[in-house]
Amino acid sequence: MDVAVLGAAGDVGRQVCTQLIERRVLPTSSRLQLVGRADGPSARATHGLRADLIDAYDEHAPLLDVALRPDEVVADVIVLAAGRTTPAQPGVTMPRTQLAADNLPVFEAYAQALAEHGSGHEVVIVVSNPVELGVAVMARALGRHRVIGMGAWLDTLRFRRELAVSLGLRRHRIGGFVGGQHGEDLVPLWSTVRISGLDVDERRQALAGLRRGRTLDTFSGEVARAQELLTQVAADDPGAAFDLIGSWPPDLRVVARPWMTHTSGAKTANGTANATVGLLDTLLDGRDTVVAGQVALCDETTVGGEPLDGVLGVPVVLGPEGWTRVLLDEPAPDEVRRLTASRDRIDATLAHVGLGRAVGGPAAAAVPTHAAAGAGSAIAGGVS
Ligand SMILES: NC(=O)c1ccc[n+]([C@@H]2O[C@H](COP(=O)([O-])OP(=O)(O)OC[C@H]3O[C@@H](n4cnc5c(N)ncnc54)[C@H](O)[C@@H]3O)[C@@H](O)[C@H]2O)c1
């Protein structure tokens, strides 16, 4: 299988390429295409990255080549990591609608090129933010099941880790998923959590202790207060801000820790690449695996008795040809409320750049135009 990384010379793209090679996910007979932009410093940096990767990993690197135009992209799996990110500085925010408007033309250019020149079988992993917009644009052009956003998988790995830390266990003993919109609008699906070695009653007791009587109905307010507090504390002592996060409940830490990491200037490239390469490994492995991802839904699942459509992070079965089924059996009432509210906020961002909810596949709608896109300020970006 061949892989293309769009935005390869960026912080996330570079880490994805490095981890793909270092973890030997791709055999030497595969091709890893490093995709940059023909204009500006990106072309130079992409060629430079190729040389650096060969310098470091020649013995076990796959074949490496460079592409600088969307119509040159050829691969079985495409990682979309190109485009702008939110400012990695304390106190500087960017509305999600602004990020959407800025990255829409990037998403459209690759969607159009893949629809016209692709094999018709590529699977796309969307990393770039807003992840849900990238999924909507790609799903319209290529078909819903070939496109998955990795934000919910990264949030899921973080949730499992935070639960494991609180319970004094290793992460591999924890199951469970995060859905919703990537970033501060995520939905920790507490009802899906499983802990190996604990029976149902023991698990219920353990999770009740961790949740401290809170429900997801107060989660958005907690996140906003946490960000405010962290900004104040980190202004004098960044170490103390990270320590403070450690005293909070696990689901709040899932949002607060990466937010603090991104705004510290370090960004979250390593963790993001780790989750992306994990998904790639699953795709290349050929077996069906349950992961969480942002996907374009079309009534294949119901929440709270209502069919769910639109782009949203949910647990899905992922195999070599993309995702197939949604596995969200009985979310708790507060999860249903937050999932549908999150979906509505995603809809609002999509509507802001001229995209409706219909994401039926190539036949359902043409690749949208970005003419309708403009700056807005409804929802803070905060996606990391
Ligand atoms: N989903 C997640 O969990 C997650 C986590 C972290 C970052 N992100 C997102 O990933 C994206 C990349 O983040 P980053 O930190 O690497 O940013 P970055 O600024 O370091 O890199 C972005 C790269 O994209 C390139 N680029 C821009 N337009 C392009 C185009 N049309 N074709 C090819 N390359 C193009 C730029 O030249 C740059 O090299 C951002 O949108 C960011 O918000 C997502």
From TrEMBL:
Under InterPro entries, the record lists: L-lactate/malate_DH (IPR001557), Lactate/malate_DH_N (IPR001236), Lactate_DH/Glyco_Ohase_4_C (IPR015955), NAD(P)-bd_dom_sf (IPR036291)
Q: Which Gene3D superfamilies match?
A: Lactate dehydrogenase/glycoside hydrolase, family 4, C-terminal, NAD(P)-binding Rossmann-like Domain
Residue ranges of every copy of the Lactate/malate dehydrogenase N-terminal domain listed in the record: 2-140
What keywords are annotated for this sequence in UniProt? NAD, Oxidoreductase
Q: What is this protein called?
A: Lactate dehydrogenase
Give the source species: Cellulomonas chengniuliangii
Taxonomy of origin reads:
Bacteria, Bacillati, Actinomycetota, Actinomycetes, Micrococcales
